[in-house]
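User:
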Amino acid sequence: MTLMITLARRFITPTAVRQATRALSSAPGSSLTQAEILSENNAARAALEAEKSSVEKYVEATREIDPTMVWGTTIAPPDPDLPEDVSEIAALDPSHANQDPLTLTGETRVVHIKQEQAKVNQGSKNPEKQWVIAFGDEGETGQCWDNSLMGWVSSSDTMSSNMGLQMSFRNAADAMYFAKKRGWEFIIDKPIMRKGRDDDAQYQDNFLPQAVSGRVRREKKSCDQWSRSEAGSSHYFRPLKYHGIGTVPQHGPNSEDDIAPHSKGYYKLR
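Assistant: Predicted structure:
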């Protein structure tokens, strides 16, 4: 019966419904009025809509937006019905019990929910916008050892080495919700707070300070920020030998000539 209803819902189109309605209304001996036929059709459509699953409704809604869409994310599916205490999910699903093994001492590990630390380089601070679940902050490094062959650090803790590569969360609340569903005990670390600047600092200020660039804009060509009194002068000299008993022999046609006097420095803007 379910298969017949599914096939009927898939192949019966509104055009076929209207044609069948006209045929019934024009058939001899038909005592149904137009209002009764319309009411029956609406009831049949409502029954078919009620039997559709959430996935079917989601696909139909996305195809109304774009008929060529195979699967879309424009309309988010409804949230699943979960118990009020989400930690009960871990008890209902026995597969969670073996995902995180106990420590060597037989204790349940505590995970840390924290932000990704931005690296100290010229990269952006975008990693700090994400939150991760870390397994290696409660002494799990005791399960590590130095590999005698290559000198690398080996570990028997698969969660601490792979968990950071699996998923990230938009905020601490989402990460906490996931940890509760898994039945993990967790600690939420303090968020990373960075004080913003109000001087419109940009990347170019790392190479040209704002005070200097402002002076250049004000004074223009008369700015002597980069003046060098000895700019353009010659600083050539012949190094001494290791024991300081004479100069190092030079190569070339004039290697025995005296050193020419230094050229005078001149004002130069760089």
